[in-house]
Here is the input.
Amino acid sequence: MSTKSHQHDVLVIGGGAAGMTLALKLSQDYQVAMLCKDVTSEGSTYYAQGGVAAVLDEYDSIDSHIQDTLVAGAGLCHEDVVKYTVEQSPAVIQWLVDLGVKFDVETQANGRQEFHLTQEGGHSHRRVIHAADATGKEIGSTLATQVREQPNITVFEHHAAVDLITADMIGQPGKRCIGAYVLNLETQEVELFQARFVVLATGGASKVYLYTSNPDTASGDGIAMAWRAGCRVGNMEFNQFHPTCLYHPLAKSFLISEALRGEGARLVLKDGTRFMQDFDQREELAPRDIVARAIDHEMKRLGCDCVYLDITHKGKDFITAHFPTIYARCLELGIDITEQPIPVVPAAHYTCGGIKTDIHGATDIPNLYAVGEASFTGLHGANRMASNSLLECMVFAGAAADHIQQQDAKSSPHLLIPAWDESQVTDSDEDVVIAHNWDELRRFMWDYVGIVRTDKRLQRARRRVRLLNQEVDEYYSNYKITNDLLELRNLITVADLIIQSAMQRKESRGLHYTLNYPTLQSVGKDTILVPPNYG
Ligand SMILES: Cc1cc2nc3c(=O)[nH]c(=O)nc-3n(C[C@H](O)[C@H](O)[C@H](O)COP(=O)(O)OP(=O)(O)OC[C@H]3O[C@@H](n4cnc5c(N)ncnc54)[C@H](O)[C@@H]3O)c2cc1C
Here is the structure.
């Protein structure tokens, strides 16, 4: 059967905040294809509860937001990138408001209506604009409505990109990106998507860990595809663990937003004793890594399955008005958060590292861009500050769209690309290998490459990941691809990149904490991994 082929000006792989913003910004002048592995509403964007950090209050300042971000990033933020991002924040919010995003407002004493801003860990001001506790859903659904109204954007749901195609792969000079092979998950056929520009907006890789707050789409596909194609990746050792995911057998990855701590919720042990004061003078408002490590420490010390977050003292009216989603979800599971503390555990939440880009979102490969959580722009340094990530998605999608428009005159026409070759593979009769290796990978990443690391644990993890890599490579060469196989292959690549990066960092900094090197080195350096086919 011949390979189905599509041609567009721009191929955007991923339909979260980053991908949709970019598609919208280019839709006036370009034919855009936007791929989603699942439906458009399945991605981290839709799960974001807290909000977007932006300088909107007259008593706040760009400089203060920059300083807070630099402090959270523990010496590794790229200051020019932080400044650029923060300076764009008011314009990004205005763009969203103009599109129809409804953020919460409150009436001031003087009768004026202003945005209600919350304060989250690491921020020295109230500067997180939000739509109750379902900000991502509000932003995501508004962007999706706009995307669907643009005749120049074609959305392909249930289409999983397999690998990027570069000119040299088909014997042409140069290495520019010219498209991707994509598995249509409804027909199980691989299709060819050709484009003059390709954008990776595939989100993060937190699914590499057993416990995560992320949806199933977060399997690091874009990072793995870019690495295979020859892009450098940076700072993959910095994995943010959210301190407070709901601990309940039926609550798959349900996050208890940081905003609860911002509004005064207290972390307590089963007997009601507070403990954050023993770890940091900012107590519950300390940055996430410190809170996650404190919880991990208490859980290991006491051998308990979870700790508790108590907001009952704020009263029912306040809680139900500010946290309706969390209140409703917990109540469904039999926990009335207005009357009892919430059982919580840490879970993998955010991938700070990713595909190395410049300030325009451009990667090492010409005509290939990376935006959103898949990218490593230098904004987050060694630790992402809460609510800077949605901001980054929109700022860098805008920057990449501008850059594509500037490069356009130089771009070449579509090349002839060979069809996907399946002549040497058969249907698998051993799917158990995939299921087993999925579990094994995510468990050892949790145990050995999690919140607290050691050299020995990292070495153990490396041995295992190399073995899994061999098995899955062999499997990939012999059997027809499925989405599970693609995700497993990508997760193994990402796990390997995380382990390699963690082994290179001989210090504890930000989110990377190792018992072998508990102190900070005087000079902070990014960890940049270079693929064998780079350049
Ligand atoms: C529970 C939760 C709460 C959060 N709260 C906040 C918050 O309050 N504030 C904040 O700033 N950040 C928050 N974050 C982080 C933030 O939501 C994410 O960093 C951000 O939404 C990432 O957006 P994105 O567009 O890069 O990726 P995503 O929104 O994850 O979208 C990725 C897209 O890529 C697609 N995709 C992936 N692989 C492929 C492939 N191979 N082929 C085709 N498509 C593919 C997916 O289908 C999806 O459409 C939160 C995250 C979570 C999980």
